[in-house]
């Protein structure tokens, strides 16, 4: 049975790294092989085929939902799952789609934006008129993978609402309970944290709270998952077992032998079932989120084997739980929480297995816990590097202090307060007062921790590879024989060293900011930024994509910011960037920026040396507010040059023809509009490569087909961020190399445009 479960689970987990989804013909061939394997009773391999088909079916259905089910429809009916209100009175809605629907598929959702909506609350059912698009998102190193996250949440469309009509009022017992708890806890200073622990509602947590938890490596304490449900299970189990034992003792004292034997016989059954019902209620109140579902399934397996009193190893229980999770949620491998939760459990089990024969005195147990926490910290840091592109240096000691405190004190008191508030209303405020006082000290500790050096480190690709090698080597040296551990360490450290030796002399990054432009020219830790992308409705491409990318690229000194012109899709992130990098020299003709920042310069033609590169401002000769007033820049050295032309149009291109504007790579003027890219201009630049920055299926229909045809007629290789994601050009002495996020950096099926 274990091998069968392993085969099914391994196939589903492998979906995380598939480069493409298998075609229908391939899937039919795999099914045929599976039938042959069943005929020859090769159960583990047949289970692997089942897992392969199970994952492929759901992934394909999600990918094709928009084109096959929704098509050109403009109406959806859905239940509000979550909403976020922005400063301009617009809201972002997560909606479970009730219609149109598709059989044989789990419920799917949509992410919708609505400007100035009527009053709307969670759990209401609405009929929406929408403008919908495929869930294709901007993808860049360091900014998280929104497209993968959309698949993991079964999100099949995104778009905006043009109008809506309420179909049904909120009719959710959970919503009513949370509303009651929110009102009751609003009077307490830490009511937001208590509400998150009681009901999994983290909407009241401020960004400062989240920063404190993330920078201390304790964010898992705010997500109702394995720790919380496990404590709830044990807490309830011990109470029920104590009650049953008391009845057994009373029956013995009163000489009621039948009662005593009956209670004694069913003590474990009642205790396990009662604990399971308690955990189920807790998970329901938490909304059965993905992490909560997995923890609940694992505890359900534990309860089942406890009730039937059948012995099964903890590894087998973990494998059963994993298979059940993947059967229930085949897209779970795309979610970070699956790897974090099962990775943590696996690490704990391996550690306990290694130390099961060691002395078990109090001091030895305390040392064992500290060592296990150290190994867990190393493994979770590795997962954090891979999933979140960063880590904190303080997770070891904060978790060493807070995990026991939460397990022994805070979570049990929270559960007691929850029951009291639900059953006795305001009579239970004394317990909440105690909880509020107890929780104050760990929150103060976390707030202090977030101010310490190393609270959150974002590493470059090379640094991440080197640190990952060190962490894996440390774990290998701990668990493997020393000679094998050193072999693993040496092998893992070789790759980063080779990468350092082959690093480029400079790089060009065209950041994927949708229908806008943001370019980074990098020389080691120094950079020049040309445009910053758009910002609107509480969303900023700079905050979401450009700033994380600058940190991920290891840029500590931003020497220049050139804002080509004032259009929002080019200058929307300029102000927050200058706040983050106050010593940056600003070059622009925009008055609203010239008045707010120093040092500053205009875009008049000139040339200067920037470290190993030459920077040439080619135009305009006079400031202008139209597209032809864009700052045109050529950057490069004696081997390679790049031309950045903003949104110039035909007139602006004609004025440039009198200069030497030859370049190896050029950014398409005005995102590939047909009012730009004249044949004379293209021939004067004589570039081998043109890079277009545009949004997928943008409303301007850019780049224009005629412009693409002109580029190809001039034998230019065309790259478009809409289909490639972030584009990176590495310049070496005699050649350059082009890579994109969707094709080389993260070439997986869920990152592709479809």
UniProtKB/TrEMBL annotation:
A UniProt-annotated Pfam family: Lactamase_B
Topology class, membrane: Multi-pass membrane protein
Entry annotated with the keyword Chaperone: no
Gene Ontology biological process terms in this record: establishment of competence for transformation
Keyword Cytoplasm applies: no
Keywords tagged on the record: Cell membrane, Membrane, Transmembrane, Transmembrane helix
Every Metallo-beta-lactamase domain range: 515-696
GO CC annotation: plasma membrane
NCBIfam families for the chain: ComEC_N-term, ComEC_Rec2
Entry protein name: Recombination protein 2
